[in-house]
Amino acid sequence: MNMKKYEMMFIVKATMEGEAVKATAESVKKVVADYEGKVVEFKELGEKKLAYPVKKELNGYYFVMQIEIGKDGLAELDRKAGLDENVLRHLIIKLDEE
């Protein structure tokens, strides 16, 4: 399978319990594993104030991860992050090949 490198940032609702925030982050990582992808780096950036309200939320819990995944897995990751009501926003960018 042709794996490419991507970086994904996502924001989780900060109004949830700490365990629910971690569970949401783990569910995003699980999609990568389900499609034989690899999480190269995972960073928790913590809770930050949003620039404007998103889905009536004023704060969000930020996560950034670098992944290697095929295009099918990437499409599913994008789809699931969009459907998850606990993920306020997400962005996936392709990293340059070194």
Protein architecture, described:
The chain has helices at residues 18-34, 71-83; strands spanning 4-13, 38-54, 57-69, 87-94. With 98 residues, it is an alpha+beta fold. A four-stranded antiparallel beta sheet has the order 2-3-1-4, covered by helices on one side. A hairpin with a 2-residue loop joins β2 (38-54) and β3 (57-69).
- Sequence stretches where pLDDT stays below 50 over 5 or more residues: none
Query: Sheet bearing the most strands, described?
Result: 4 strands, antiparallel
Total of domains: 1
Shape annotation: elongated
Mean pLDDT: 95
Task: Output the structural class.
Answer: alpha+beta
Radius of gyration: 13 Å
Distance between the termini: 19 Å
Major β-sheet strand ordering: 2-3-1-4
CATH superfamily: Ribosomal protein S6/Translation elongation factor EF1B
Beta strand % = over 45%
CATH topological fold name: Alpha-Beta Plaits
Instruction: Please give the CATH architecture.
Output: 2-Layer Sandwich
Give a count of the beta strands, DSSP E runs of length 2 or more.
Answer: 4
Order of helices and strands: EHEEHE
CATH class value: Alpha Beta
How many helices? The count is 2
